[in-house]
## 1
Amino acid sequence: MNVLVCWKWVALDDDDRWAGVSAADEAALEVALTLAGEHGDDSFVTVATVGPPPADATLRDAMARGARRAVRVDSPRDLRSEAVATALAPLTVGYTWVLCGDYSLDRGSGSVPALIAAHRDIAQALGLVDVRGDGDGRLRALRRLDGGRREELSVTSPAVVSVEGSVARLRRASLTAELAARTAAIELVDGPAGPRETPIEAGPYRPRARVLPAPSGSDALTRIRALMSSGAAVTHGENVTLDPPEAAFRIVQALRDWGYVSPLLEGTPTA
Amino acid sequence: MADFDVVVVGAGPAGACAATVLARKGRSVLLLERGPFPGSKNMYGGVVYPRMLDQLHPEWWDDVPYQRWITRRSTMMLTDSQAISVDFRTAAWGRPPYNGMTAYRPDFDHWLARKAERDGAELLCATTATGLLRDGDRVVGVRTDRPDGDATAEVVIACDGVNSFLAKEAGLFGTVDASNYTLGVKETLAMPKEVIDERFAVRGREGVDIEILGGTSGVGGGGFVYTNLDTLGVGVVLKVPALAAQSVRPEAIIAALKAHPAIAPLVDGGELVEYSAHLIPEAGLSMIPTLATHGMVVAGDAASLCLAAGIWLEGVNFAIASGMYAGEAVDEALQARDVSVQGLAGYERRLASTFVLRDHRKLRRVPALMLSDRVQNEYPQLAANVVERMFRVDNPAPKPGLRRIVKEERRRAGIRLRHLARDAWAGVRGFG
Amino acid sequence: MLAVIPVRDGELPAGALETIAECAGRVVLVGDRLDGVDLIADLVGATDVRAIELGTYAPGSWAASLGALVDDEPIIVLPASPDGRDLAPRLAYVLDRPLVANAVSITPERATVPRRGGLELHVLAVVTPVVATLQPGVRGFELAASGATHQTVAVDRREAPDPTVVAVHPPDVTTIDLTEAGRIAAGGAGLDSAARFEQLARVAAALGGAMGATRVITDRAWVGHERQIGTTGVVVSPELYLAFGISGAVQHTSGLGDPRHVISVNTDPHCPMMQMSDLAVVSDANAVLDELELLLGAIADG
Ligand SMILES: Cc1cc2nc3c(=O)[nH]c(=O)nc-3n(C[C@H](O)[C@H](O)[C@H](O)COP(=O)(O)OP(=O)(O)OC[C@H]3O[C@@H](n4cnc5c(N)ncnc54)[C@H](O)[C@@H]3O)c2cc1C
Ligand SMILES: Cc1cc2nc3c(=O)[nH]c(=O)nc-3n(C[C@H](O)[C@H](O)[C@H](O)COP(=O)(O)OP(=O)(O)OC[C@H]3O[C@@H](n4cnc5c(N)ncnc54)[C@H](O)[C@@H]3O)c2cc1C
Ligand SMILES: Nc1ncnc2c1ncn2[C@@H]1O[C@H](COP(=O)(O)O)[C@@H](O)[C@H]1O
């Protein structure tokens, strides 16, 4: 029983100091190592990434933590998700499970795992908050739904599974494994050079102005209240720089002004 | 057989330079760093005096990640509302080989450690040394927080920074007294480069370093303002016991410094991007521990080799030098197959014959003097009052003589002539 | 543009109405127990509503079954709800189209997508035909009367390898207090330890509310994942929201509903959370929490 783990290496600009994988990818490796570990010595974990040469550091990290093989599909870093999945899909053949993170650090849309499953025409169980072997060769998985509901799934191999970051904490590498991984071989596969994602504009996140339902209600007062309570149209609030004690004081003052903290309570600070 | 010839703990300037020297001599070196990369946990920014790099990395200025070359240095004395400054600038410091630069430590330390790696040291990050391995009275390696994490070595070099856990565990420190430490607190404020250039009267990559005496809200210490490319470092260095006694928050002291009429015009409008606090072994020579034991030496801040005497705040250069000398001495000891204290004695010998211990010796009385209440509070007030009266135009009264002003102001400040004379003498001996 | 809405057991997913509004009223509802659900679409001015019963949710099978029906639509939009974001890539693959995932807005020319963990917005040129998903909670919608045409379309359910649904569990009791809380104090990566969140819970309790967190925090397991507020966590609708050390990435804020009052404490005055606050305090959130706990304690002790 072998598991393929897909790791996406993400770096800020060209600086390898702020590079790594998402918490979800880390959790995926831990789940994979656990599943393979439960299956005895013949089982192993392979880690794969589609990315440029600096991504090797991440693959080595995965090997130090217990992945036996590492494969890098040589491609530029901003490849579109469809191309990433197309490059990964053939590598997944023969593995019992394909484990992914629920999100990558940069794009974070969780599309690649579903696209891999679609390519291979195999099952997918994505965005899991819990997953374990059921002792019968299948996986028992809990998937998050809307409104706090959970879907309990039984997954048959082969399948693509993606997990949230909270599912498992990745084990640390031993000192010897960490040093050994520095010279371990990484299998290199030629990959596509495109298509790449090229934004026509980029900027800091700003909330989109929200369209609001017209105020409804029987009387004018309710309608006005409905209008006033819809804080969605970006409120231009007060912006203050304060020392922590003053800050706390200002917050309590605001809470009192807005009626969340009773002004009548003894000891309430006054301005 | 040990796993490595040498394990260096801490990839700050001291550790990186020790590792570089040893790797170049062909020794197998493991350089351990607890942060995710070298410099990640280190105090953000400051002034680096790079002279020692000339030997280790000739032409280091070609690729060093610096912010600005220091071409202007001011020393300011502040009272509540007054300021006196001595301002020095020279174009020479803006050309190779340069006298000082501001640099961000995550950049600088990372650069320095990468060089060690390129020379053949194994750099292992995200790994904390948690204890020493011993064989009798000999240190034979370190234990780390990784599974299966023991690393054995012929020699361990502890470069783990101030308050060194390893030096303590090796029993190299006597009892540690909180009053020997100061707390460095620093804010990094973002400001457009043009605004900095204009406010500090510099151009291009020229930069300014202002050291401040007084202005720390009555808590013993000093302050500084440095220019980076598009941020300012503004901070205070505070005596720990005084801080505790007065129960003021360090942030409040920085805020007061930033609001001082002499400082506010420089820093106003800067946007806070980083706040950090760090202990500094300030009290100089008296704090330096025993520097070696069997199988281990201590370098950099771990050995309290940081010079923080009032307007001097130098540590990186001491760390680089002590790291290099530790590397050389350890190599020598390995060659002679004697890593006992005697075998490692070359380390202390090197430190004693160079600026590392000489500067400390020379300035050994300075920390106590600079931190005394008189120097901290009374003298700046006295000096400022004297200067204010000298420059004040009191027409129609005639200008008073300097001697009279000094006398009157000294009386007013309640400063005894005896103290003044003694401190002046201590100053002459200390700095001279 | 056509909205494709996966419906589970007669319930619309998060962001369904916004997606319908974004597509100007053209919608295909697919799922089980669609009776009556289609009428809700009318509320947001739907013009053309088609309903397709396909049984229980199964992404592989649904994508295969739906493909032919929507093939001639140049732009297909699904809500980026758990099921929408699960189904959309499979549908894109069946239709052999590119996917634009998690857009905060989409028009026939441009799609705006969050990048770098939600802190940046990138605008991508839309090349049709395309499948997109729309981030729930960012757009809003207006109520509008419509005279929509309603149609039930029969489609053969094609089988595909999908997991077996063993059960659907109702919301965990531990999340209910959060979803129903009128006041929420939440913390993000600006808070420095797991213990801070215990303190945050005490502060929230002192205000008569509940504690929540961002995904960065639940990923660190400092608090349970059931406390995660946002599109992939719990969608809440408090009246009062206090954010401590939260940057306000779109996936977080879109799970907030429309709080009447927002207070944010952050060292970065320009982050989105501060921008959408009624009171934005630039300060160290950890120290402020210490002070706030003292102050609220003092008030309570009165
Ligand atoms: C506010 C302030 C301002 C300063 N300004 C200046 C200035 O302007 N100019 C100047 O020259 N100096 C300045 N200094 C002093 C200077 O920062 C230090 O002297 C210098 O960093 C010492 O270098 P080091 O390599 O000995 O230790 P450090 O730089 O402290 O490096 C120690 C390294 O060891 C790592 N480490 C610690 N423990 C372990 C462990 N157990 N296992 C593994 N790794 C470990 C740490 O993560 C760190 O990377 C300033 C200090 C402060 C606090
Ligand atoms: C598909 C997808 C789904 C997602 N779903 C969710 C979701 O459901 N819920 C969710 O929360 N996230 C979700 N995310 C993640 C989201 O994009 C952000 O990464 C996350 O919300 C950021 O959390 P944060 O604000 O705690 O951390 P950061 O973005 O790191 O922000 C930390 C903030 O703390 C401030 N800060 C730092 N130090 C201090 C201090 N001392 N005092 C005060 N402030 C300080 C910083 O200025 C910064 O603004 C999702 C992402 C994707 C891609
Ligand atoms: N370039 C890549 N190489 C390997 N795996 C990837 C890559 N991009 C995405 N993945 C996997 O797909 C998951 C979701 O990524 P995304 O669709 O970008 O959110 C990640 O957590 C990885 O497991």
## 2
Amino acid sequence: MLEAHIQRALWHFDLDLQLHNGNQIVVLWGPSGCGKTTTLNILAGLLAPEQGSITLHERVLFSSSSHINIPARHRHIGYLLQDYALFPHKTVMQNVRYGIRSKSSDRSISPPAPRQLLKEFGIQHLADRYPGQLSGGEKQRVALARALITNPKLLLLDEPFSALDYENKVRLRQELKHIHNEWRIPMVMVTHDQEDASYLGDVIMKLEMGRIVDRVYRETAGPPENIADAGRNFVVGVEY
Amino acid sequence: MYLHIEDWFPVILSLRVAILVVIMVAALGLPLSRFMARHDFYGKDVLEAFITLPLVLPPSVIGYGLLVLIGKNGVIGKYLDTLGINLIFTWYAIIMAAAVVAFPLFYQTAKAAFNSVDPNYEKAARTLGANELRVFFTITLPLAWHGVTAGLVLAFARALGEFGATLMVAGNIPGQTQTIPVAIYYAVDRGDDVTARTLVLIITLFSFAVIWGVNRWRKNIE
């Protein structure tokens, strides 16, 4: 459960929004430069808001009133950056393992075995390759495995399909939906693509100039039959 | 063409100085250049110009500046003098002169290398639980390694070849402060061609070997 209220002055406008995420896929949808990536950076702890609060599963990650700002490394939030940011000097296996030894503060949950995880993502044969030798779709799977191995309590995705061709994109969208159902992790995804938003989003928030101008909720649970139907499964929410 | 045992002193001294200077410059320059590559603050341009200044100033100005600082009546020197410490005409002064001229070369090269590392890799590492030290040693430094080693080679070469400032602060005391460049200068001055030629050959071969070796090594790790 994520509760966030963040305010931060940006170059041309003020970012000011409220997010609530039970265990859903919340999509932030809007044109480039509207504050989507900044929002993810703030949630991840890579950037501090000026005002507000962020709570994840009743743990306060940020609070301007009580001067709390938990650093990114202690937030247990997985972040799939745009273009995935796979470490180019490390192999797939080294990339995926990177997060294991760092999570010393939470020993209660043992991380999934890396080999098992690679197998689950169908990339076990790539273990010894370097990111430069991978296709876009393979990179995304590696990045997902790398983020999930830390047992994150929230997964942030920044334009996860922008580097993929259409075929790969459709397949990986389904996989992401599957991962969400399997791992039961709340996700916040940023996209400018309406099709991605309506396929994956349980809640779609339309962002303009740092503000949420529209919220759309999925009426029925589960993925729509096909993309063309996606729009019909939504009801328009309240103006914000 | 041969050298007496005591004639090897400048070679050993120069190498010792260059190696020590490289270690000092790296210890100070790595954190500083990394910090400057990632942070902006008021007065940064002025500070950077100040750091780079020894690169463009004549060596005699560096030498004069060091004398003003650590000379017997210098700003710091007079306090050291009351403690019985004298730096001028010792090999500590050689180290200081070489470090001051070598530092900006390393700093500039390392900063450019750190600037070329995409900050997203560091962000990703942080969200994966890495602290700043781990981010630096496992992500930033390996990705900037090419430029950093280039900076180390440049600093080493500059320290090995330092002449003007060294002469001013450490003089030419055979067996104490005589480095290769200073020894060559005085050998030529007194018409000792054999020593001059031998030292020139040694420093040329050695410098060649270092550059060749580093280039080969870098090709191998790519």
